[in-house]
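User:
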Amino acid sequence: MLLLDEPLSNLDAKLRLEMREEIRRIHAQTRITTIYVTHDQKEALSLADRMAVMREGAIEQLGDPRAIYRSPANRFVADFIGETNWLPAEVQGRSDDEVIVKTDFGEFHAPLDAKLSVKQKVWMGFRPEAVEMGADRHNSFATTIAHVSYLGEIEQYELRLSPSATIKAVEQNPRQIRRVGQPLAVHVSPHNLLLLHSP
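Assistant: Predicted structure:
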């Protein structure tokens, strides 16, 4: 067994990427069982077959990287493994294939979760990259652009929902120039919404 304890932490960004691929290549070639310790979420997601998210020495969630990213067990895991927007919500209704929740910013449709009951308080979460530009029939927000960061291949936005509430959004390969203060309608597809029990 090979133990790697944050082996890339002191390298610059470009070299980290190159060494990450080299570690993956060596592991694929040798098939040595490897435990890789890291605080870099992208490093963990890209290298792991199975990953464990730990807090204070206890495992919060164990599974394959895609399942942990898409279906985190709790808010700690969701926030640790990537950015997440959170809004307080209440379950308004259920059908055979979806849950409808109410927030201060409207009703939203999410995939059915058998553990949730009507009137239950929940956290509604979604990743910045799940925010899509333009309004849609379901799950739309009317926002105002509060901040823009252009990073080449992506553009990051902070979008104001109200004087006290903002969400983050990411657009891949941006073409349109958007400026602070402009209104922007966005939506989130139901399958990209995450509902977690509110304590």
